[in-house]
Amino acid sequence: MEKGVAYDNDMNLKATELRLGLPGTDESQKECSSFVKSNKRSSEEMDSSCNEEECAPAPKALVVGWPPVRSYRKNVLQQQQKKSDSDVSGMYVKVSMDGAPYLRKIDIKVYKNYPDLLIALENMFKCSMGVYSEREGYNGSEYAPTYEDKDGDWMLVGDVPWDMFVTSCKRLRIMKGSEAKGLGCQ
Amino acid sequence: MAYSFPEEVLEYVFAFLSSDKDRNAVSLVCKSWYEIERWCRRRIFIGNCYAVSPQIVIRRFPEVSAVKIKGKPHFADFNLVPEGWGAYLYPWISAMARSYPWLEEIKLKRMVVTDESLELISKSFKNFKVLVLSSCEGFTTDGLASIAANCRNLRELDLKESEVEDLSGHWLSHFPDNFTSLVSLNMSCLGSEVSFSALERLVSRCPNLKTLRLNRAVPIEKLPSLLRRAPQLVEFGTGAYSAEIRTDIFSNLVEAFSGCKHLKSLSGFWDVVPAYLPAMYNVCSRITSLNLSYATVQSPDLVELISQCPNLKCLWVLDYIEDAGLKALSSYCKDLQELRVFPSDPYGAEPNVSLTEQGLVTVSAGCPKLQSVLYFCRQMSNAALIAIARNRPNLIRFRLCIIEPQAPDYLTLEPLDTGFGAIVEHCKQLRRLSLSGLLTDRVFEYIGTHAKKLEMLSIAFAGDSDLGLHYVLSGCESLRKLEIRDCPFGDKALLANAAKLETMRSLWMSSCSVSYGACKLLGQKMPRLNVEVIDERGPPDSRPETCPVEKLYVYRTVAGPRVDKPDFVWTMDEDAALRLS
Predict the structure, then answer these.
(1) Closest residue of B to A19, CA-based?
(2) Residue A21 — φ and ψ, nearest 5°?
(3) Whose CA is closest to B66, among B156, B142, B3?
(4) What is the pLDDT of residues B543-564, one digit of tens each?
(5) Contact A67/B161, CB-based, under 8 Å?
(6) ipTM score
(7) pLDDT value at A19 more than 70
(8) Number of Cα atoms under 13 Å in the Cβ half of residue B468
(9) Cα A19 vs. chain centroid, distance in angstroms?
(10) Which residue intervals define the domain F-box in the entry (chain B) (predicted)?
(11) C-beta separation of B384 from B357 below 8 A
């Protein structure tokens, strides 16, 4: 009846192309052809996962109900993926530096104390952060290390005991000294 | 004609028949057997709530103590059935409240259950014992509070994967202090925290509690307290399985688990901290069922746990297990019957784990009792499917989801027709099959030819033409449920096999090529089927007859057209056909 799928020389990428139309339908039927109505729920889920910074390549949730994973499972996985960066043993956190083109990831469990961590960061990003002081923070340095804690607040690295820092740090950001001034001063 | 046996004797004999099939056969023997049987049938199974009405059921079976009803079609699980479609429980409860005052059991799947229904249940049935709500929705924790407060003899409350509006955890505290009959509680789908002391007291005073599945909100540090109060537990579901690593928490957990000598099934395991998994090792040798499908734990930790469970029969796990983990599974768990591997990152463009077809092939080779498979993966080959089929001709359920629609055999780039063909050819007892990947009409020819015991078939993005659908409808003798999405199947096969549809429970077709005209014709031809067009674009007759409908749901019924349809569902019946043509 209808044409079979051609498999001669080329890989026939069209056959594996993910699109909203029916397999085998051509454009002329578009007016009447049933379309995949975008279901509000699924596109919301898709949008929320697109808000992550490292979104490229984009998630493929283009087709409603495919792959056939139930909503409660999808929701649990999304929640867990957001947490997993800080909870999995071997605590990898993202490190960004103002002005750098891409982020890095380090395992903060590898370090025993703040000086070790700072030296590692300084080497990785070729910057200088100086010495921490409770009163002045990293005042005077070109850069200052900050981190996002479990509550979502941005904190200066060094204020809390090391162990507490390790369990509460979700990600690091090396801020330009001029910006960090606000964090260190009274 | 005189009977050798009085009614009472026949009734006594019929009491030994538990399967509906047998009871249905018995009731067809003669009128008096029909009469005797209908008075003594206690358990009713309604596979499609719209196939029959509460009134018809009650009229035929006046003394029922257990009811099981299924509502929405299976594809509702994947958001293909629009909100407000139907499957309301209330009419059933209100009818049964009047006619079955001694009803003890209600088990539901994919139905819309309101707090009002739950309250009515709790007040109408004095000896109510079992409530199982599987994939249901429409109720809140207030409805649960009614059940807890009023069902004095409740044994089982199982909320399996239902969508509950979680107003508070207070519902659990409604179980009265003198309530002691609980045998099974599954609240794993709930979000909010229940009063822990109320839970502790409940567990303490219910000596027959065998199943306790907690929700995520119960922290790991509190588990020992519950386990110590219920050492007779057979099935246990944890909450979030994580905490900072502390030796006291760990040792409490070890001790508490050790006290449970009857544990066979474990589940829960949200947010797992792998360091706490070994706390369970003492019970693992007796474990037959393990649900780790929320545990985002890496393969080595999974393997360590699984290697402690030689008696494992059922494993649900995420694809973090990877091929290496499945290899270990196949060597440690020779009793394995069911395996489900879920995707950890279903929408990711690239594979995030090293799980391929090889894992499944290995398990099929190493686990001689494997009969039920659900497997999500990103690549498959005909060779692998053929190997699986040859290794495991005893497969009963085979559901494969290759994540990319229409993905071909990754080695040869051919369709996966021969692979699935081998599955249906070798696995002669196959009852359930879900297809995926690149498939032509040929695979349906194989299915129609060989899959004689197949009862449920799920098809997506497959086939070339009506011939595919025709092969299935004309060849699969045992087919009861057929669900199809995004396939180029149209009018011809459907109309040519109209009579087949009366032998099945239901047919679902969405985003296919079935025209409105054909649906009308089908509805006209087959008065004992409900032919329902679901179309959110507006009335089908506002478009040409040749225009394909969005979704089609066809099912046999003795209840006539639905009276509770939403505005996007149209029944194609004789009247409609005359009215609209």
Answers:
(1) B405
(2) -80, 180
(3) B156
(4) 999 999 999 999 999 999 999 9
(5) no
(6) 0.90
(7) no
(8) 25
(9) 26
(10) 5-46
(11) yes
